[in-house]
Give the backbone structure.
Amino acid sequence: MAEKISYQYTTDLPNVIIEYPENINEEDEDDNDDDDEINQPLYPSVQQQPSILYNYNNGHQHFSLPVSSTSRPAEFDLLLGEDEDDGEHTSALLLNLAPPTPVTIQRVASEDEYNFYSKRKRAKFVGPYLFGEVLGQGSYAKVKECLDRRNLCRRAVKIMQRHRLRKTPHGEKMAATEIRILKKLNHPNIVKLYDFIRNDEKQKLYLFIDLCVVSLQEMLDSDERKKLKLHAFPTWQSHGYFIQLIAGLEYLHSKFIIHNDIKPGNLLITIDHQLKITDFGTAEQLDMFSLDDTLKRSQGTPAFQCPEIANGEDTYSGFSIDIWSCGVTLFNLVTGSLPFEADNIYLLFQTIGKGVYIIPDDIEPHLQSLLHGLLHIDKNLRFTIEQTKQHDWFRRRPPRTFDFLPFPSSALNRFQTFPMYDYLAELHQPSSENGEDQQQLQPPENLNFPDGTISTTHLSGNNQQEQLPFEEQRHHRRSFRSALITCSCSRTISSDNIHQTKNRNRQDHRICSLS
Amino acid sequence: MPFSSLLASRSKTDHAKQLKEYFTVIENEQDKEKKNYEDAIKNIHKTLIALKDGLFGPRDGSSEPAISDVSQLCSGIYSQELMMTMINNLSRVTFEDRKEIVAIFNNLLRRQVGAKYPAVDHIMQRSGILFKLIEGYDNADIALNCGMMLRECIRVQELADIILKSQDFYKFFDYVQKSTFDIASDAFATFKDLLTKHKSLCADFLERNYDLFFNKYRDLLNSENYVTRRQSLKILSTIILENANLSILKRFSCDIDKFTLIYGLFPSEAFSLNTKSGIITNPMTTSAFDIYKREVFDLFKLLGELLLDRYNFSVMTKYITNTDNLKQQMNLLKEKSKNIQFEAFHVFKIFVANPTKPKAISDILLRNREKLIDFLTTFHTDRTDDEQFNDEKAYLIKQISELKDTKA
Amino acid sequence: MANNFNLTYRIIDKLKRSDSNEKADQHSRTYLISNQNEQNEENYILRLINLENLTNLSEFITDISWYKQFNHFNLMSLKDCFLIDTKLNLVKPYASFGSCADLLNSNPFGVCERLIAHIMWQTLQAIRYLQDKHILHRGIASKNIYVCDDGRVLLDDFSHCISMISPFDGKLRKQIFDYTDKLKNQLLYLAPEIIYQNADGYNLKSDVYSLGMVACELANGSNSYRNMTYGNLNILYAKIQGSEPILLDETQLTDEMIELCDSNNSSYIEEIRKRKYTKEFHSFIKSCVSTRLESRCSLDELQSHAFFKFQKRLSRDRNSLHCDMVKLLETYKKKRPINKEINHLEETSSNFPTTDYNEKRNLTWEF
C-alpha cells in the first residue's frame, strides 16, 4: 500500500488548518478503507470487495494503559523516524463488515427518539474500537467518535497520518510529544489517553481519548450565544471553567510540563461541564536536569502569547507563559473579546509587547484585579498558580445567575441521538445479499492479544472460536435459551434469523426491530 | 412526603424552633423512660426530614428550592444555634436521623449567600462545633457521621486552620489507632485531608509544630496495628514529599533520628534495628514484613515521584550526589520484593542519568559496571509491556557501559 | 472484638462464589463460619481479602465504608471487619441459598413467580431505602441479591453506588453522567440511558431497569442479553433498538421458537409451554424495563404495583411474609459448600499464595 499519489501540499505553509477537499478523495483511494466518510456518497464505492477482512499480521502495535502490550522496547519516536519501511509488514486490525450493496436499514419504531440517516455507514474496527462519525479535522489529525466494545465507553479517537504529519511543520515531532506527554498524565482536567494503537502499514496513529462535546472557543463562536444576546460567558460559568483550568495547569506544572498553547480552542468541555485541557503538540517537557523553566522557543497562538515573546526575548519562563495565556483566556471568556487584537501579527506583537489592555467597566472589581494579576507585563510580578488560587475571585464562587451559555446544538446533537447507531446497525444487520459470507465474520474476538501479534485466521465457515471454558453442553443450552429470549425480546422472528441460529449453534446476534 | 405535608402549614422558621424544643426534651436524660421522650424522637425524625427536604428541594432534583424559603430555614437554624444542638445530640437520635443531620449539616456548609458562606462564619464563631465533631470519634455509634461532617468542614481552609491550630488535632493520633477497622480508616481519611488539602496551610503548620508532630507520629509508626502502620507511613510519605513542604522534608531528612526510623522500616535493615532501637517491639512473623514492604514500596514510589517533581529540584540534586543514597538504592535493587526493586529502579535511574555525576558516584558505578550491566540485562525481563521501562533500562545499560574511567 | 476473633469464629466450610474463577481466588476467599459467642452459634460468611494484592487500597476502603452508612433489613450488612496480617476479614450474614445467580444455577429454567415476587419486593424495599438517601446503586444484578434461610433477601455490593448529591457544590443533581470502565461487569443490567452516555444523563429510575432485568432473569432462567455474539456491542444495539426483555411463558411461545429447538433444548421448551405468568407479572416487567424513562415506573409507583399485592398484604407482619417465602424456598436446593475442612482462621490466611518474590540474588556491590 505504497503512497502513490503525490500531494499538492505546500510544505512551507504555517501551522494552520488547511483543507483540501480534493485531497480527501484521493486519500480514499490511497487508503482503500479510508477514514473519511464525510463526503461519501450515499453508498460506499463499489470497488470494495464484498467481504473485507484484512489480513491480520504481526507488528500491529497496540498499547493500552492498563494492559499494555508491546513486545519491542522501541522508543516510540522511532516510528516517526524517517525510515519509511521499518521492515515490518503490518496491516490494520481492521474488520470491515460493511457490504457495499445498498440496503435500506430497518427503521426503528418512531417512538425511539433517535435520528437515523438513510446513508449506510460502514462498521470498522481498530482493535476493540468501533469507529464512528468524524468530529473534527485539524492540520495533521482527524478526530472521530468511537466506541470501546469492552466497556461500551464512548471515546474520541485522534487519527494521525504520517504523510500528513510530514507536511506539517514540526508535525512528527508534535505528534511524538503529544503522545509521550499524554501517556504520563492522569488528572480529571487533562484529557486522558486511554489507549493508543499504531498501524505501521497504513502509517497511522490512533489516540483514544475522552469524548468531549465542544471546545470553549466553539461555544463562544456559537449561534446560541448570538441568539441569547450574550456577549460572552456569564461570570459564574466562566468561573466554573476557570477553576478547572487552573487545577489542570497546576498538575501539569508539577509534572514539569508547560503547555504553551492555552486558549479556549484547546479547552474541551465534557457533557457534564468538566473542562479538559487538550492538544499537547506544542507542549514542552522540561528536562529533569534543567535548572529552571527557561524555554528557548514557544509556538503558541499569537494572540495568547505574552509580552516577553512578543518582544522577541531570547528565553522565556515557561510557567509564566502559561499563566499569561490563562489570563487572556479568562479575559476572553468573560468579555468575549481578546485583550490584544490587531490586523496582522506584527501589529499584534507590538500591542502585546506594550502590555496595555482595557478591561471593560462592567467587569466586577475582584475579577479585574485577578485579570491584572494574570496579565502582568512583568513576568516576575505576574501571579503564580498559588497566588491565583488564593485570589478572592477564585475562592468565592460567583452566584449563579439565570443566563447560561449552552452547548451549540450542532455539537449537542451528538449527545442527544446516538450517532454510533448506524455503525452498530451495519455491524449487526449486514445486507442479506452477502448474507452467508458476511455472517461468518466476527470482529476480532481476542481483545487482550499481548502484543498485537494476533494470528487470527480467516474465520471462514467455522466461526466457533470457543473461548469459554464451560462445559459445552451447558453452554449450548444456555446460549440457546438466551437466543430464544433475545428473539423474543423483539417479538418478531424472521425465518432468516432462525436459519442462522440453527446453523451457528451460538445464538444469533440479530435483533429485529420492533413493529 | 407525608411528613412534610403535615408540617407544610407551619412557617419555615418554625422547624428550627420545634426541633430545638424536641432536642431539649431528649437532652433531659431522666425523661428517657417517659412517653414524651419517645414522642420527641419521633418528632425529631419528622422535622429533620422536613428540614432536609426544604434544603434540598424535591427528591428527584427536578428543581431547586426557592431561595427565600431556604434562607428562612437557614436563619432559623442559625438563630436557634441548631447546628451545635444537632451535633450535641447526635448520639441520642436514631441511626437514620444521624444521617439526616449529616446531610443537613453538609448542605448548610456549601450554601453561599452573596460572597459569603454563612455556615462557615457561624462555625468560625463557634469553634466548639468542630471540637465536638472531633470528639465524636470517641463514640463508635457516631464516629463515621462525625467524620463525614468534619471532612466537609476541612474543605474550607479557615475551618481546617482552626483545627490544626488547636490541641484537639492531636487527638487524631489516638483515633487512627483505634482497633475498629472502619473507624480507624475513617479517622485516617480525615487526618489525611487535614494534612494535605491546603498545602500552604499544612506546610506552615508542620514548620511550626515540627517536633511535637513528628514525635507523636513516631507512635503511629510503632503501632501494633498493621493498618495504622501502613496508613501512617503512607500519609507521612505524602506529607514529607509534598512539594509545598520542601523545608519539612529537608529538616526531616537531616534529622538522623527520624530518618533511621523510616529506614528502619526497610526490611533489609529491620532486623538490625530491631534490637538496637526497639522500633519494632513485637516479634514479627514473615507476613508482617509484607506490610512493611508494601509501605516501603509506597514510600519509594513517592520518593521517586518527589525527586522527579520539579518543585523539588534542589532536593533531587542534593540527593543524587550523595553516595550513601546511591548505595542504598543499589541495595534496594536486589530486594526480594519485586515491587520495591522496581521502585528503587526509578530512583536509581536518576543517579545514572545525571549528566553531571560527581566523581564519587561515577566511581561506584564504574566499580560495579560489569555487575550492573549484567544485573540490569536480566532485570524484570517479564515487564515486556512497559515500553517506557524497557526504554529506560536500555538507556541505563548504555550509559553505564559508556562510563569512562575518570581517573585516567 | 477484633482481637479475639479466633475465639469468636470457627470456620465450618469453604464456599465458592458462583462467579468466581481462579484469578479472583488469588485475591479473596469465602468461608462459612459460625459465631461461637452467640447462643445458637449462628452462621456467617467470612470473606477474606488480601490487601497486598490491592493496588488501590483507598478505593477499596471507600467501597467498604458504604456498609456502615446503611442500616436496612434488606441490605447486606457488615457484622465484623478485622485484619489478620495483610488480609482483611469481612463477616457478613450467611445466605444459605446463595445469590440469585446461584439459585439459577441449580434451577436453570427459572424459579416460580411467587418467589420472584418475594425477592423483588424485598429488593425494592432496599432500593427505596437507598433512594431516600439519594443514592443510586447501579450494581443490582442477580449475583448481588442473596436469599437467606428465613426468606430474607439481601442486596449486596455497594462498589457501584453513587450519590445524587454533587460532590462539587453539594446540591441535589437532577441527573448524573458518570460512566467508567468499572461498570463493564454490570453491562447486562444497566439501563440503556446509562450506556448511551448522552446529554440526558441518568437518574434513580435506572435502578428500576436493573431490577426488572433481574426479575426477568429469574423467571426465564437466564439473562436476555447474555452470550451475544458481538458481546457488549450487541447489548447496546439491542437496547438502542428498543428491545425490551420479556417473560417466556406459553403466551409468548411462538412456532418459530419451537422450530428452533433441538434435542438439547426441548426440555426448556416444554418447561415454557407448561408455565403461564400472571398478567401482573407481565405488566411489572414491562413497567420496569421500558427503555423510555417516561413509561418506566418510579420506585414509589412500583411499590404499589399489583404484582406485589400479596406481599403488601403480608408486609405488616414480617414473619408471615417470610414463612410464605420459606415454604416456597423448600423446593429449592440450598447452596452447597465445598466441604473442605479448615478450622482456624490463621490457616486461612497462611494458605494464601504468597506474593511474588524473586529468587534470592547473591549479588554484592562494591562501594
Observations:
- The two ends of chain A are 46 Å apart (CA to CA).
- The longest strand of chain A covers residues 129-137.
- Residues 128-212 of chain A form a domain with the Phosphorylase Kinase; domain 1 fold (CATH 3.30.200.20).
